[in-house]
Amino acid sequence: MIFWVALIVRLAYITLAHTYRLKPYDHYFGFGWEMGRIGRALATGYGYADPFRGHTGPTAWVTPLYPLLMGGVFKLTGVFTPLSAWILLAIDSVFSALMVRTTWEIGARVFNTRVARWSGWLWALYPAAMQYAVRWIWEMTLSAFLLSWVYVLALRMCNIGGPPEEAATAASPRRWAIFGLLWGLIALSNASLLVFLPACGLWVLIGALRSGSRARQQAVGVVLASVLCLACIAPWTYRNWRVFHQFIPMRANFGAELYMGNGPGSVGLLMEYYHPFQDATQLRLYREMGEVAYAKMRGRMAEAIIKADPAHFAGVTLRRIYFFWAGVLHTSSDHRWEEYGRDLNFQFISIAGLLGLALALYRKIPGAWLFAWAFITLPFIYYFVTVAARFRHPLEPLITVLAVNLFQSAEKRRKPLTPAV
């Protein structure tokens, strides 16, 4: 029932708020940004290419899962049409609504059914939980959906919240296979999330061995998961080798991102005025040098700036840590008070989630360290490169559950009885 409520609310918002009617500014660049341009190239026969203006050639600027989805929708319903926007937002809304199921199971396994029920309803109806699904054509919702199933699967494999008699067989080869496939899809959706893979895999392996599972069976499972994960990634990496004649396992744009986050005038946020889609000079350099050479050149420039002023880099890194958890206030916006309200809401749920995690660790709740490793590792790259509010979204199912448990754990303080005179 909660799933259907969540889905109906999301689809109704898309339809009634007309979020599928995107502005034609800069030839609809806001329709999926780089992914939208690549989707257009795929649908019009240019292949996986052209992430900016015009035909700039093959690209590995972003990973391929969501651009391939966009290309398929464009092929069926037209490039940058309102119908294609509605369909893509509806697909994202399905992924978002399905996270009701994963949020529920995380709450039920780690805490109790009351926490699970409230977490499910909060995810279904909380505006911040649905904003990316109903307003953004990008990979955030898909990536968060896939990672939420990793959380659930990890808890299942360690038999947290499961019957004791299943402990020795919870981390079966079948589940390890699904684990590997999920991580392969995550890599193709948002490769930055791979920083959580080593900690997550080790946590599952140690938990399975402690539950009485045989070491040999777990070794087979780890190998199987690794092979399937690499099998998902291999076609993309091979394509990059064939096209660019270099080993590019995931993305080619790290150097460019590093410069845009740490270049001259950096305050910790992405300086879009250095981006090829805004700066004609950078677009010309990108086109003339080629994507890989351009990104490497910008990366060398960023490294030189960081080495020349490490104190400034340390300062903007601390600012990014703050921005990741407290949000980025756009004080120049025409809707300043709306921005203040949005930021207060963002900060409140962050604080509640962090306090909920601290409480779970203090009480030695099974599964708490899985959550802690997610909180530690997932933001790590963003702290040093660039940050945006949407980067927190893959953590938000955990934040939701932890925040609900924090308030469910509160106890009323009884007033001491006053003795009668």
UniProtKB/TrEMBL annotation:
One of its GO terms (biological process) is lipopolysaccharide biosynthetic process. The keyword Glycosyltransferase applies. One of its GO terms (molecular function) is pentosyltransferase activity. GO terms for cellular component: plasma membrane. InterPro entries: LipidA_mod_glycosyltrf_83 (IPR050297). Keywords: Cell membrane, Glycosyltransferase, Membrane, Transferase, Transmembrane, Transmembrane helix. This is Dolichyl-phosphate-mannose-protein mannosyltransferase. It comes from Acidipila rosea.
